[in-house]
């Protein structure tokens, strides 16, 4: 009876908390205790819908709740739970104005050519590779994307399509898998299947819990790849836990490093279980805004990248987000040939097949990390396990 009263009080606390108040992530260390708490919450939710501001991830045994609800759980379970702030996280992107005289809906944007994707299409177009794109959603009416968009999920408004009200997710989707032919644009992997996972609102902001639930959804729905173009400056135990679960499930996570122009980078790209991406300009030099350092696994085009936009349009943007979609597209090309390739092996191949960067004055190659993405070399090296000591052709 005492336990039942606790959960009644807890439910009232979470239901009465302000919608825009502070939030917490409560992770259970013991599976049995999590199962018990989940059972109590589910029973009360059935009696008192809609159940308040509570969400759960069974993948990492976590409750996402208002701060007042987290305090009650911490008092009840003590050291058996870990509590962290559910902070806001932002997209990685910097908008660039269209260049004079350039067709913004160009069939082959410069980045697609730079990574030699067209030459790779004779080997693979990424057919049926399932890519979870955790972002702002997608424009389902865009003619260049209609062929590649699966339903996905809207984490902000369950039951609704993950429609893009920002534009960032649509831009990422275009570089990944657009197939507009001569009247639109082509992406890196034009026959991949994209599953938009809408975790970010119209302003490009999300809670860490939204990201955790997005990765959880991708694992439960067996995505082959996850594209993540956002970051935060501090570590999150819950985010790292779910990244590790995806890694152990064999799903590579490709993440943007950030646009601070500094040595270092943001999380989750800093986690060793992800593939960290930096941005290049048109001269195969590291873009001035891109983060850099030894932890960067590969660089890809990220400066003045033209791609799909809202209302069936096109737009140029710059950022490590744009670079990340090139890398995810190239990975999709490879996974169509090598389904089940492990995250570790994919990272190794991306590093091994990258082209040397063009250095600026005073730069050292070792201080920058990986090289420039080359989709053709990636497919040649990764199509089948290479013989020991055999290097990919240029």
Biggest sheet, strands in spatial order? 8-9-7-11-13-14-15
* CATH class type of the largest domain: Alpha Beta
Number of helices: 12
Largest sheet: 7 strands, parallel
What's the CATH superfamily of the largest domain, by name?
Peptidase S8/S53 domain
Mean pLDDT reading: 90
Give the DSSP E fraction (strand runs of 2 or more residues).
Answer: 15-25%
Give the overall silhouette: globular
CATH structural fold name of the largest domain? Rossmann fold
Range of helix content: 25-40%
CATH architecture level-2 label of the largest domain: 3-Layer(aba) Sandwich
Q: Please tell me the total number of domains.
A: 2
Q: What structural class should be given to the helix and strand makeup?
A: alpha/beta
* Termini Cα gap: 71 Å
How many strand segments?
A: 17
Order of helices and strands: HEHEEHEEEHHEEHEEHEEHEEEEEHHHH
What are the defining features of this structure?
Peptidase_S8_subtilisin-like, metal-binding, alpha/beta, serine protease, metal ion binding, hydrolase, 12 helices
Outline of this structure?
This protein is α/β, with parallel strands linked by helices and 394 residues long.
What does this structure look like?
With 394 residues, the chain is of the alpha/beta class. The chain has 2 domains: 2-86, no CATH class; 90-382, 3-Layer(aba) Sandwich (Rossmann fold), CATH 3.40.50.200. The protein has 12 helices and 17 strands. The chain has helices at 2-16, 31-47, 67-77, 110-114, 117-120, 168-177, 208-220, 237-248, 320-337, 343-353, 365-368, 375-382, and strands at residues 23-28, 55-57, 62-66, 81-85, 88-91, 94-95, 130-135, 153-154, 193-198, 205-207, 225-228, 230-231, 253-256, 275-280, 298-301, 305-309, 313-318. The protein has a 7-stranded parallel sheet, with helices on both faces. Strands 2-3-1-4 form a 4-stranded antiparallel sheet, with helices on both faces. Strands 10-5-12 form a 3-stranded antiparallel sheet. Helix 10 (343-353) packs across helix 12. The termini are far apart.
């Amino acid at each position: 009876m005492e336990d039942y009263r606790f959960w009644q009080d807890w439910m009232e606390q979470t239901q009465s908390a302000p919608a825009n108040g502070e939030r917490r992530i409560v992770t259970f260390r013991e599976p049995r205790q999590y199962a018990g708490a989940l059972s109590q919450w589910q029973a009360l939710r059935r009696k008192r819908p809609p159940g308040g501001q509570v969400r759960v991830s069974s993948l990492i045994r976590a409750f996402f709740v208002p701060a007042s609800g987290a305090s009650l759980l911490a008092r009840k379970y003590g050291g058996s739970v870990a509590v962290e702030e559910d902070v806001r996280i932002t997209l990685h992107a910097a908008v660039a104005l269209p260049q004079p005289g350039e067709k913004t809906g160009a069939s082959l944007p410069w980045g697609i050519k730079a990574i030699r994707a067209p030459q790779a299409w004779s080997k693979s177009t990424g057919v049926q590779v399932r890519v979870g794109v955790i972002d702002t959603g997608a424009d389902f009416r865009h003619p260049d994307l209609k062929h590649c968009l699966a339903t996905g999920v809207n984490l902000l408004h369950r039951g609704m399509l993950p429609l893009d009200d920002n534009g960032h997710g649509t831009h990422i989707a275009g570089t990944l898998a657009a197939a507009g032919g001569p009247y639109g644009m082509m992406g890196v992997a034009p026959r991949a299947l994209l599953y938009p996972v809408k975790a970010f609102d119209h302003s490009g902001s999300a809670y860490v819990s939204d990201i955790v639930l997005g990765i959880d959804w991708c694992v439960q729905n067996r995505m082959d790849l996850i594209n993540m173009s956002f970051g935060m400056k501090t570590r999150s135990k819950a985010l790292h836990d779910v990244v590790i679960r995806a890694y152990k499930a064999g799903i590579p996570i490709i993440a943007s490093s950030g646009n601070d122009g500094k040595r270092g980078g943001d999380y989750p790209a800093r986690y060793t279980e992800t593939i960290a991406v930096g941005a290049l300009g048109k001269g195969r030099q590291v873009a001035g805004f891109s983060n850099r350092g030894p932890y960067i696994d590969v660089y890809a085009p990220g400066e003045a990248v033209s791609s799909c936009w809202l209302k069936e349009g096109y737009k140029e943007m710059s950022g490590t987000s744009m670079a990340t979609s090139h890398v995810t597209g190239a990975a999709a090309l490879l996974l169509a040939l090598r389904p089940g390739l492990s995250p570790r092996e994919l990272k190794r191949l991306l590093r091994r097949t990258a082209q040397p960067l063009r250095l600026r004055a005073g730069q050292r190659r070792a201080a920058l990390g990986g090289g420039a993405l080359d989709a053709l070399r990636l497919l040649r090296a990764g199509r089948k396990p290479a013989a020991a000591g055999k290097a990919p052709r240029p």
